[in-house]
Amino acid sequence: MNDSVSAGDEIPPGHSVIEVHVGELEQLFNHIDPSPFHDRDLDRSTEEFIVDWSRDFPGDAPLGLVVHLDRPVELPRQASVLGNAIHQYFAARARTTRRRLRELLRRGRTSLIIGLAFLGAAVGASELIEDWLDPGGVLNVVRESLLIGGWVAMWRPIEVFLYDWWPIRAEARLYDRLAAMLVRIDASGAKRAS
Predict the structure, then answer these.
(1) Most CB atoms closer than 10 Å: which of 10, 49, 94, 164?
(2) Measured between alpha carbons, how far is 44 from 66 in angstroms, rounded to an integer?
(3) 194, part of any domain
(4) Which burial class, exposed, middle or buried, applies to 17 when counting CB atoms under 10 A from its CB (0-12, 13-18, 19+)?
(5) Domain for residue 26, yes or no?
(6) Considering Cα of 70, then 175, then 82, then 92, what sign does the dihedral take?
(7) How far apart are CA 28 and CA 75, in angstroms?
């Protein structure tokens, strides 16, 4: 006979389901965090597990989380508290990630201004040097060195605007999906009254 009881969000077909099995709800959260249960950070290994599983699903699939518990809990109160805690945690992670993206783009813009100014100065200096030095090997080495240095100064802004921003944006979108996922508890010997 199965004495498992469920509470929380109904997870309809079509949702990609992440399943976690723990002895008690406390195992999902960081034990060092002094915040009340519903405001506590997820345990690092729990977060990594949930995030890694969610990355395996299609990017447009709605998500659901089923937490299997071995110990009794008071349902549905605990399911509601758990759902809110998980939603708040991943919403905060999404905000933090977007803040990190804004900071990266701000640094990218600053780096671009500095890089363009340095490139312009390097090109100008290479043309001035051409007027001062006799044509030949030394002139070519100095001129090319200035031009290479100017383009190297553009490396970081190009890296930011071509490569660095989009993985952070994808991470923020994933956290948004996790913040909106349905959460359900399946517990052995759960108490219905609350």
Answers:
(1) 94
(2) 18
(3) no
(4) middle
(5) yes
(6) positive
(7) 17
Tally of structural domains, the chain:
2
3-state helix, strand, coil in the chain (%, to 5): 60, 15, 25
Domain that includes residue 155, residue range = 108-172
Contact 182, 90 (CB under 8 A): no
Look up residue 189 and give its two tokens.
Answer: 């010997």
> pLDDT value at position 77?
77
Backbone dihedral angles phi then psi of residue 68, each to the nearest 5 degrees: -90, 125
pLDDT less than 50: residues of the chain: 1, 190, 192-194
Bridge partners of 138, per DSSP, are none
pLDDT at 30: 80
Q: Beta 16-22 vs 182-188: how paired, if at all?
A: unpaired
- What is residue 193's predicted lDDT score, i.e. its pLDDT? 39
Q: Specify the amino acid at residue 177.
A: R
- Can you tell me the distance from the alpha carbon of 143 to that of 146, in angstroms, rounded to the nearest whole number? 5
Predicted TM-score (pTM) above 0.70: yes
* Alpha carbon distance 82, 154 (integer Å): 47
Looking at the fold, whether 44 and 73 belong to one and the same domain comes out as yes
pLDDT value at residue 134 = 65
What does the pLDDT read at residue 161?
93
